From TrEMBL:
<dbReference type="InterPro" id="IPR036390">
    <property type="entry name" value="WH_DNA-bd_sf"/>
</dbReference>
<dbReference type="InterPro" id="IPR000524">
    <property type="entry name" value="Tscrpt_reg_HTH_GntR"/>
</dbReference>
<dbReference type="InterPro" id="IPR036388">
    <property type="entry name" value="WH-like_DNA-bd_sf"/>
</dbReference>
<dbReference type="InterPro" id="IPR011663">
    <property type="entry name" value="UTRA"/>
</dbReference>
<dbReference type="Pfam" id="PF00392">
    <property type="entry name" value="GntR"/>
</dbReference>
<keyword id="KW-0238">DNA-binding</keyword>
<dbReference type="InterPro" id="IPR050679">
    <property type="entry name" value="Bact_HTH_transcr_reg"/>
</dbReference>
<dbReference type="InterPro" id="IPR028978">
    <property type="entry name" value="Chorismate_lyase_/UTRA_dom_sf"/>
</dbReference>
<dbReference type="Pfam" id="PF07702">
    <property type="entry name" value="UTRA"/>
</dbReference>
<feature type="domain" description="HTH gntR-type">
    <location>
        <begin position="10"/>
        <end position="78"/>
    </location>
</feature>
<keyword id="KW-0805">Transcription regulation</keyword>
<protein>
    <submittedName>
        <fullName>GntR family transcriptional regulator</fullName>
    </submittedName>
</protein>
<keyword id="KW-0804">Transcription</keyword>
């Protein structure tokens, strides 16, 4: 019999990973807890330390544990923060930093919330050009967009990256093209420029991060990013495409409609990514 397998086609690695996964799921290993050492687990399951190490990598790729070299393996904190995709009972949506995102994060118990702003001029192409009503066949000079790149840091860790795209014909030589915070928000600036937002829609997807994004966000292997694109219009004219990228284990998007009680924020926060 193959010594790497215990029965049927299940390998020892998968058997150990399944056992540890169940213990994490039922709370035997609490969030933030340090798992037993490789030596202890190898003795318990009567397997080699290499097999234990392989099982830990399986759980790491699933986003269940964090392996800290020289320290040990820890259960991830799997309680995400609510990202308000729509305003709720006096709470401004998280698209707006000063009035929405930062106060909500402070209410969740975080103190150090910082946003940096960079500006870039880009050329719209592909899906983004279509969303902004720009003909992708036009010359480059006529497909310019202003990008506001806002990195949101929580306790020193990059938490979200929000990149707003505005047609240059609207945003060039306005506050939107200056690398500074806009206290009243870009939506209000657009309104003052004569482009009041009358409707919008969201596209929400998930993708794996690039190596650079993994490093920037500090995410473990196997953890996807949530990507929220909000395309806004003034009448029939597209005025912005705001893309927010966020690690999936730290966020859950909350959409609400009608007269919603603020208690939904508590209900939405009182969850973990591991169902018990």
């Amino acid at each position: 019999m193959n010594s790497d397998r215990i029965s049927g086609s299940k390998s020892k690695r998968d058997w150990v990973a399944e056992s540890l996964r169940a213990r994490i799921g039922d709370g035997s290993y609490a969030e933030g807890a340090r798992l037993p050492t490789e030596e202890v687990l190898a003795e318990e399951f009567e397997i080699s330390r290499n097999t234990v190490r392989d099982a830990m990598k399986v759980l790491q790729n699933e986003g269940l544990v964090v392996i800290r070299h020289g320290s040990g393996t820890y259960v991830r904190n799997n309680q995400p923060i609510v990202h308000l995709a729509t305003s709720v009972h006096g709470y401004v949506d998280s698209e707006r930093f000063q009035r929405g995102y930062a106060p909500h994060m402070r209410a969740a118990g975080y103190d150090q919330i910082v946003e940096t702003v960079e500006i870039a001029l880009d050329t719209a192409s592909g899906a983004r050009a279509v969303r902004l009503g720009i003909d992708p066949e036009l010359p480059i000079a006529q497909r310019q967009v202003v990008k506001r790149i806002c990195d949101r840091f929580v306790e020193g860790q990059l938490w979200q990256r929000q990149v707003s795209h505005f047609p240059a014909t609207i945003a060039m030589n306005t506050e939107l093209s200056i690398p500074q915070h806009i206290e009243r928000g870009t939506r209000e600036v657009l309104r003052e420029l004569g482009y009041e937002r009358t409707w919008s829609y969201d596209l929400v997807s998930a993708r794996m991060p690039s190596p650079q994004e993994r490093q920037s966000f500090g995410t473990p292997p196997g953890l996807p990013l949530i990507v929220q694109d909000r395309i806004a219009y003034s009448g029939e004219q597209p005025i912005s495409d705001i893309q927010t990228v966020m690690p999936a284990d730290r966020h859950q998007l909350l959409y609400a409609e009608g007269e919603v009680d603020e208690r939904v924020l508590v209900l939405g926060s009182d969850v973990t990514l591991i169902e018990r």
